[in-house]
Design brief:
Layout: E1 10-15, E2 18-23, H1 33-36, H2 40-47, E3 55-57, E4 70-74, E5 77-84, E6 87-93, E7 99-103, E8 106-108, E9 113-120, E10 124-127, E11 130-133, E12 143-146, H3 168-171, H4 173-176, E13 184-185, E14 190-191, H5 202-206, H6 210-217, E15 239-242, E16 247-250, H7 258-264, E17 270-272, H8 283-286, E18 287-289, H9 310-313, H10 317-320, H11 325-328, H12 350-353, H13 356-359, H14 370-374, E19 377-380, E20 384-387, H15 396-402, H16 407-411, H17 417-428, H18 439-446, H19 452-460, H20 467-477, H21 483-492, H22 498-507, H23 513-524, H24 529-545, H25 552-568, H26 573-585, H27 589-602, H28 607-619, H29 623-636, H30 641-653, H31 657-670, H32 675-687, H33 691-704, H34 709-721, H35 725-738, H36 743-755
Antiparallel strand pairs: 1-2, 3-8, 4-5, 5-6, 6-7, 8-9, 9-10, 9-11, 11-12, 13-14, 15-16, 17-18, 19-20
Helix pairs in contact: 15-17, 18-19, 19-20, 19-21, 20-22, 22-24, 23-24, 24-25, 26-27, 26-28, 27-28, 28-29, 29-30, 30-31, 31-32, 32-33, 32-34, 33-34, 34-35, 35-36
Length: about 750
């Protein structure tokens, strides 16, 4: 398969003394072998890399697994791998419930595991959920294993090998091949996915090479050498040792993000928002990365789920000091520039740091390795350990206080975090602090602590904090809708960092409409696509209600970009729901209703589609249809707390209070830690005259969310109304202490004090 990618470029020809721009032919992808003649060493290193083997046509030579009749059983499923006429097959449960012989079309990855792709109708390639462990037998490898050993996955499940979460076209292709274009057709629900190279070749990082080849014939013709990006940030850079600290400093500051962003296109947890990326383009013009949200990251920023390096590295002191990926990694072979601790010894004096006086372990032991303490690994896909690139010091004290993991107990699994904390303090004479200083504030905010928004606002506004941390603080802060949140969001709109402006754009929906409209125009016209489309999403309902407040051309451009982005990902139900929501916000209700139904055709268990469809039906005066939709959803997903909660509200609105409150109770039992569900259920109980049970429910919920304002308010008022004045006074005081600026809380304290003086 082949593809040419257009990149805007113009040359000027003189005609009669005037300049006329003439489009130069778009650069073409020429393949990695075209690079080998001039760049022999780099090409040789690349040939042995995982990039070169990221995806291959499946043959007996490229497939590492045992296809000689090997069988594996997992979760009630059976898989038999075999050969036929020189081709590779697996026999297992197919997408229609019956067993089928499926031909392996491609291998996927190489170390420490190799997956296999099989074709399905509609241009789909699907990744099997059984993989080959390619490690040596002595390390437990050379075997088939299940990626989901505890699951009995059936056709229709998202994680079944034929399901949408195992779809190569959306989930995998963009990073395992070069210049992939997904080419999904929403009308037919089919793909025509293409690439320029099946593997991650030279042009995946350096861009299409035709102009560079042309430049070699006329080297003086283009100072850029015909490249779309010059990965030369390390040219002339030296790391100079500082004797007093044992560390090194960069002789010139890092002035760009080119190299890091080229790596980030694949080594980050992100969504694609536009097609046509070429190296050198702005990362946020084509991708929307995840910030440090849970459950992707622990509250202190350590990796939890599979997040692929970029989000971790951006938190690190190394990044802040100017380190780039290739300072540690040789980019063509992907190997470290030195083995073991020597890679750190490039900048950190070995006599100080690679010594028992620093690491307090026996030299040569696992505990003496820098990565053991500063880059602990988490295992993904059952056998693939990946190091956390936030490069932090161990903080077992945070394990005690926040429940976050620490490197000490990763090895010393038989000892407690308190032991590790005490041991570190004994060695160092103090508790280590480290570079990342946001965990406690994030933890307080995520538990609903009072005044947490002020802490988050300080982080969001602090240029000394890592940019990704500031962006995360904005995400956590915006829903507070208070003065601190508004101040931080309005400041972030003018920030120099696109990542900050992007999250400020998302926060517009939480601002008062007047403020959002006044501030949003600049974000709709931002030079970065991610910022523009996020602003369009947040402002769509406001722009529809008050069209004169924003320039119509700017609104239309950003909205069109948002639509295009969502259609790019219309093979996913979440994108269909987002597109339907946009159409609803713009008043296109029929298109919205059709969009929600389209999402359910992709995934009949996608709860947000049912919930949003029912809400739109309700807003259009069709409560009967809304109830039908919610009941249809509960048939597909009977344990959905969100759908039980929505159905409970619908029944209460129709006057069926007892049945409605019963559904609200089911939601609370299914999601016992959800403070909002508990509050609404308790209010429902109270309206039914079941005040004692309502009080028990809010008290139970307060144990999980002790600072939740609605719960504190309900607990106070329920007791007051039952004439439990002492209990009401105690809760009111707690409410007022937690929210010292809450006028209602202060008034209740005074009222209860007057009614029951001590």
């Amino acid at each position: 398969m082949g593809l040419a990618v257009s990149v805007g470029h113009f040359v000027v020809h003189r005609m009669g003394g005037s300049a006329a721009p003439v489009a130069e032919p778009a650069p073409q992808y020429v393949g990695s072998t075209a690079c080998a003649g001039c760049h022999a060493d780099a090409y040789r290193h690349w040939q042995g890399s995982q990039h070169a083997h990221a995806m291959q046509v499946a043959t007996p030579q490229t497939a590492l697994g045992d296809f000689d009749g090997a069988t594996i059983r997992s979760g009630g499923d059976s898989w038999r791998f075999f050969r036929r006429d020189g081709r590779l097959f697996v026999r297992t449960e197919g997408p229609q419930d019956s067993d089928a012989d499926l031909e392996i079309a491609y291998t996927f990855g190489v170390d420490p595991l190799q997956q296999y792709l099989v074709p399905l109708p509609g241009g789909r390639l699907q990744a099997l959920t059984v993989a080959w462990d390619s490690r040596p037998r002595a390390r437990g490898g050379q075997r088939w294993f299940s990626l989901y050993p505890e699951e009995h996955l059936r056709p229709g499940d998202r994680l079944h090998w034929s399901g949408i979460d195992q779809n190569w076209n959306h989930m995998c292709a963009d990073c395992h091949s070069t210049a992939v274009r997904k080419n999904y057709d929403p009308a037919t629900n089919a793909y025509d996915t293409r690439w320029s190279a099946i593997d991650v070749g030279c042009e995946a990082c350096h861009g299409p090479g035709s102009r560079h080849l042309a430049w070699t014939a006329r080297p003086a013709s283009d100072p850029r050498k015909g490249l779309t990006v010059a990965l030369d940030e390390r040219r002339g850079v030296a790391w100079r040792p500082v004797a007093q600290t044992g560390n090194a400093t960069r002789n010139v500051p890092r002035a760009s993000e080119r190299e890091i962003e080229v790596c980030a296109q694949c080594h980050s947890r992100r969504a694609q928002i536009a097609s046509g990326y070429v190296p050198g383009a702005a990362f946020l013009d084509y991708y929307a990365p995840d910030v440090l949200t849970q459950p992707l990251y622990h509250v202190d920023g350590q990796q939890h789920e599979e997040v692929y390096t970029w989000g971790s590295f951006l938190q690190s002191r190394m990044y802040e000091q100017g380190v780039t990926c290739s300072d540690c990694h040789e980019p063509h072979s992907q190997k470290l520039r030195a083995e073991g601790n020597a890679v750190c010894g490039q900048c950190h004096a070995p006599q100080k740091y690679d010594a028992p006086t620093h690491h307090f372990h026996t030299a040569g032991s696992p505990g003496s390795q820098c990565v053991s303490c500063h880059m602990p690994a988490t295992t993904y896909m059952a056998i693939d350990p990946r190091h956390d690139h936030s490069l932090r010091v161990p903080r077992p004290d945070r394990t005690v206080s926040l429940g976050t993991p620490n490197a000490c107990n990763t090895c010393h699994t038989d000892r407690s975090a308190s032991w590790a904390d005490a041991t570190l303090k004994g060695w160092l004479g103090h508790r280590p602090r480290g570079f990342q200083q946001f965990a406690e504030s994030f933890a307080r905010a995520r538990k609903g602590a009072a005044l947490a928004s002020e802490e988050l606002a300080r982080i969001a506004e602090d240029p000394a904090q890592p940019t990704i941390v500031r962006a995360t603080a904005l995400d956590d802060l915006a829903p507070a809708r208070d003065g601190a949140a508004e101040r931080a969001v309005l400041a972030a709109i003018r920030d120099d960092h696109a990542l900050i402006r992007w999250r400020a754009a998302a926060a517009l929906e939480f601002l008062p409409p007047e403020r959002a409209l006044a501030a949003g125009g600049a974000l709709l016209a931002d030079p970065i696509r991610a910022v523009r489309i996020e602003a369009a999403r947040a402002l769509a309902p406001l722009a529809k209600a008050d069209p004169a407040r924003l320039p119509p051309q700017v609104v239309q451009r950003a909205t069109d970009e948002l639509r295009t982005s969502l259609r790019l990902n219309a093979d996913r139900p979440e994108a269909r729901v987002a597109l339907a929501t946009l159409e609803g916000d713009l008043g296109n209700h029929d298109a919205a209703l059709a969009g929600f139904e389209a999402a359910l055709r992709l995934d009949r268990e996608f709860v947000p589609a049912y919930a949003n469809l029912a809400e739109m039906q309700r807003l259009r005066g069709r409560d009967d249809l809304a109830q039908q939709t919610l009941r249809r959803g509960l048939t597909a997903v009977p344990d959905s707390a969100a759908l039980h909660h929505a159905l409970g509200l619908a029944l209460v609105r129709r006057g069926e209070r007892a049945d409605g409150v019963r559904e609200l109770g089911v939601a609370t039992r299914l999601a016992p830690d959800d403070a909002r569900y508990a509050y609404v259920y308790a209010v429902g109980l109270n309206t039914l005259g079941e005040a004692s049970q309502a009080i028990r429910e809010v008290d139970r919920a307060l144990a999980h969310a002790p600072s939740d304002r609605d719960l504190l308010r309900a607990a106070t008022l329920f007791r007051r109304d039952r004439r439990d004045l002492a209990g009401a006074r105690r809760l009111a005081q707690r409410w007022a202490t937690t929210y010292p600026h809450d006028a209602e809380a202060q008034a209740l304290v005074e009222e209860l004090a007057a009614r029951s003086p001590q």
